[in-house]
Amino acid sequence: MSAEATNPVSAAEANAPDAPSRRRARPRIDLRRLGRAALLGPTARGRLPDAIGHVADAHRAHHPDADLAVLRRAYVLAESSHRGQFRKSGEPYITHPLAVTLILAELGAETTTLTASLLHDTVEDTEVTLDQVREQFGDEVAYLVDGVTKLEKVDYGAAAEPETFRKMLVATGDDVRVMSIKLADRLHNMRTLGVMRPEKQVRIAKVTRDVLIPLAERLGVQALKTELEDLVFAILHPEEYENTRALIAENADAGDALAAIAESVSAVLREAGIPAEVLIRPRHFVSVHRVRLKRGDLRGSDFGRLLVLVGEDADCYAVLGELHTCFTPVISEFKDFIAAPKFNLYQSLHTAVAAPDGAVAEVLIRTHQMHKVAEAGVVALGNPYVPQDGAEPAEEGERADPTRPGWLSRLLDWQQSTPDPDTFWTSLRADLAEDQEITVFRADGGAPGTISLPAGATCVDAAYAQYGEAAHSCVGARVNGRLATLSTVLADGDTVQPLLAQDTVSGPSPEWLDHARTPAARIAITGWLQAHPEATKAPAADPRPPVSVTADRRSGTRLLADLPGTTAGAVRPAGCCTPVPPDEITGFLVRGGSVTVHRTGCAAADAMRRLGREPVTVHWGDTAECRVTLVAESFGRPRLLADLTEAIAAAGVAIVSATVEPPCEQRVRHTYTLQLPDATGLPALMRAMRDVPGVYDVSRAQHPASPDL
Asked: Is there a catalytic annotation at residue 395?
């Protein structure tokens, strides 16, 4: 938008290996000629102006039944409103919206997107108003045009650029076509950046690298992303770019190696009766550069990849089976993005096979529809107002957009908490730098049942994603049913249950920032710490020794051993696992002729077996009494010890000993050794202790113990 331009085709684009292959069926458009055509005035009634004939052809290739009348009206308005404006290269300005629209048309964008693309600079740079656009072309087109219209520097100053991106992202959350137009707009501006001052080229290239390329990746628009990467590469790393360009030129015949493998693959698939199209896809500059850094010296087959296109999903796996049967597969290169699609809609099978001469070829296997989505991403999904095949119609007034992924929802949530444009700009770049996602499940059954987080996210991030600012009182979490610290890194598919303290006055510690990966968590934590500076200055309390209460240690549990000469008093439960009826038990003879009894599966018992100790058969006697050690995990609060003791006494259980550990991160651990009159009452006792306010877990003790030798 409002971009100054020079040559319509940049050096990077002219030499990009992928670019000619993608457009081989349609020659490069001469935008200067189109600019001259735009100045010739209106055409005969009912005819499309010659200047957008190429756009019409590209559009009809994807949408044969498209009504082109609205494109003609949009072109006439755009041409007349931009008439007299020129780019810095001297071209009529109308060449820019025409080029942006052609990019989108070749990707398969629908008519509404193309209409808005033709008009995307009219409100910003001409006398045309948004109301006029809405009156002539409807609310959808007006919404898209408004979404990509820049905010004025006279009103926002230095904050104009970050606030413009904030505005676009908010609009994208409602309609992804806004960002489709912005990406195509930036691509044409990057293609024609040569007339700009070098320092301005660098600034625009850095924003493209940090924001637009990650957005293109997340929206799955690989055709735009790869070309943007090459253009940025040429500006920010000119020496490496020239080295890569020379390397590609020196290996101009590298395709011969892949062509031989491609022919072998085609023959194998024909023999197997699998209809497939086998293509060679040359790598673009940045891809060649990355492969060279990874592998060192490159072979001919490293300059491209094979693409196998089939009709159905099942055919993809059939092709994979044939390749792995008839060629030597490189197993480490296999990835299945069909069963587990990427978060940006991408689906393919990735593999690599070795030819008899040792050359290794990477192979992508996908259906034609997958290929369309892989290249065009959200652009290929069409109008988000129209329900997709098989989808339920949206309710009145609701946007039925299937392309709003988890990362975009998270971004829209946290941006509301960052009124400061610098904080927003920094957080946006950091968020977009995370290029992998995981999905975790909520343990509480709440909606939504899943939470999308960036790879490397921790329990801190999950807590803020689920509870917002209420997560300030989080003291821990359960991950897959087990207690975990807030710093625990989550894996894809984990079930997470953040644990919140009842004391809502407490808040996060500065150390949480070391564990937070999402901007939402970092912004919330930073805001609380800034509002409570005293929390970061409070001196650390001296460690307090454990508080112990000791009572009668006699056990009424009767244990018997099938060992001649052993009395009942010489058979005792082990302190490491505190077995109680009706636990399955095993015993071991120790020094002094006594037998210690362990629960089956106790680590200490396993250690004895590894040492060659023979187990002794033991069993419970006829008494129902038992002694057991329980551990209560709780949030710290006044009268907690008294309430727990009262709950234990109310169950008719005697406390043999009690230990309270010093609080850690607002959590307290109580350890009780208890004498139960009846072992069958243990489950009810544990439930009663869990019902005490502040207690979130009660479990049997598992103390590490060294076996008595």
From this structure: no
